[in-house]
Every structure is written in structure tokens, then in C-alpha cells.
Please model this.
Amino acid sequence: MRKTNLVSQVALWVEEIIADGPIELVDVEYVKEAHGWVLRVFLDKPGGIDVEDCRSVSEVLSDVLDREDPIPGPYSLEVSSPGLERPLKKESDYVRFAGRLANIRTYQAINGQKNFQGTLMGIEDGKVLIEIDGEATAIPLDMISKARLAVEF
Model:
């Protein structure tokens, strides 16, 4: 199974596993690291995800992966919180985290830059609004290559 297909399929399985509760799927990644392939699933919920949430989803997902066997060869499964620098993946993330500091990287330069840090102001007409030094900037959602919450000190 191709990497993108695998990530999509795992995301579907996780969505089915968590469908009846408050847990949300933030991201799935399948990456090669020094010690081998790692399948990572990031979860969140209001008030934050805990170890028990991760354990219960991991157990069910592990059973599904064993049964379906979509990954040839060895790999590690990690189910965890997205952490303080949570990725912003869905349109609803930009609304939910409005008012928070974020880092956004774009595929192409906008006004001469590709990296932005500022306060999220939401999303409007397919454009993420971010305030930088008191000025609003609109970034088309389809131009965002990576977006994360930033740690505020």
C-alpha cells in the first residue's frame, strides 16, 4: 500500500474507533527514522488527551492493523498527544484556536515571505487570517504547507 493511501486508511480506522467519544484525530504520519518505520497517530480532546485515551485507541488500532496487515515489514505504532505545538490541519482548527499564537509556512511566498508567526484570527472564504504586528494577513488555505500552534512564553 502506498504511503499516502496507508495514512488515509489508518485515519479512517482511527475515526471509526473514536467515533462515539470526545477524542479527535489530529494527524497520522508514517515516517522512516533511524530505528525503522514509525506509524504515529496524534489525538486530542477538550481538556487534553491522557495516557489511558492513548492506550485504549492504541490497543484497538493495533488489533485492526494486525488483522488488515497493510504494512509490509516491521514498524512501531505510537499513539500520543500532538503536544504544545499542535499541528493545524482542518479548517475547524483555525477557528477553534483563534486568539492563539501560530507559525504558518506556505508553499509559495506571500508578500515576499513564506514563514509567518502571529495571532490566529480564524478563517474566512478559504483564507486563514493571522495578525502580525497589528496587521491582518490572509493566507489561502491551499497555500499552507505546514501550520502549528506556537509556544507562548
